[in-house]
Specification:
It contains eight helices and nine strands. It is α+β, with helices and mostly antiparallel strands and 340 residues long. Strands 6, 7, 8 and 9 form a four-stranded antiparallel beta sheet that branches.
Amino acid sequence: MAESPISRLFNNFSQGNGPRSPGGGFQRPGGALPIGLAGIAIIVMIAIFVLSNCFYVVQPNQMAGVTRLGVVVTPVPVGPGVHFKLPFIETVDPIQTSISRLSLPDVKVYTADNQLVTLGISLTYQVPRSAVLHLLYDVGKAGNLDINSTIEPIIADRALRVFASHKTINISERRAIIDEQMHVEISKALKRLFGINVIDIQIRSIAYTNAFDRAVEEAVEAKASAVKEQNLVQEKEFMAEQVVATADGAAKARIAQAKGEAQATVLRATAQARSIAIVAKARAIAIAQVGKAAGDNPAIIPYSVATQWNGKLPTTTVGGSSGSSLFRVLLPAPGVPAAK
């Protein structure tokens, strides 16, 4: 084993092998320090080194465990602060107990219809005091070196179990249900196996295969085309209904108009009939009155005729040679003097 320069210098001084002075005595290196002070300096340096290895600091967001030559010597986790340990033979293993976040690499799972889905999953968790020593010394390697790599397979396995019960086409609409199922399954597993408290599970991303994406796009396009055709049919049905409604309205309008005209005709005929009846009744009364007057005075009729004569003799007469009775009334008989 190679000897250090300090040890070599100390041995030279102790064996009298150092450089000599002109007077035959030993010459101290540099002529600055006596041999006793150099030894003290070395002892102080060693003491500082040893003492610095006797204390350790646990940060506020950590707890720690201590092992001595491979044996755990802390019955409970060591809390934050400055603590003493035996130098060189005791080892301190800290672990973070504040809320931590673990982002897993892409997790590949299969759905109920055998479609491959790639998930991006993040886990927010916290290590309680009761689980510190278990995680440090009972799980994986001693210390906190492989805690994340130990819990990652558990998370991937529970994600695979959850997605195996859902069809790919239903993942989007059942996203909240899937999140809840994963939270329950992963929380139970990590609590039972490691004592870890799961605060939240985040599914950052869900990636489908290219074939599935193309199938979805084609289905969406087909559905859009079907909806478009259905809209056209509905539009045509609406237009036909509008035409029928317009024709029905026009027919009803014509019927109403015809009814109105018929009722008007009936009313006009009724009014005309009543008018004729009234006129006829009035004429009958007038005739009756004229007849009564004529019965009371027989000469009134010839007189009335005479008042309507225009002074011209008729060109044609019917009856005997004696002429019309009218003219017999108006003209005096032969031999009878005219009335004055």
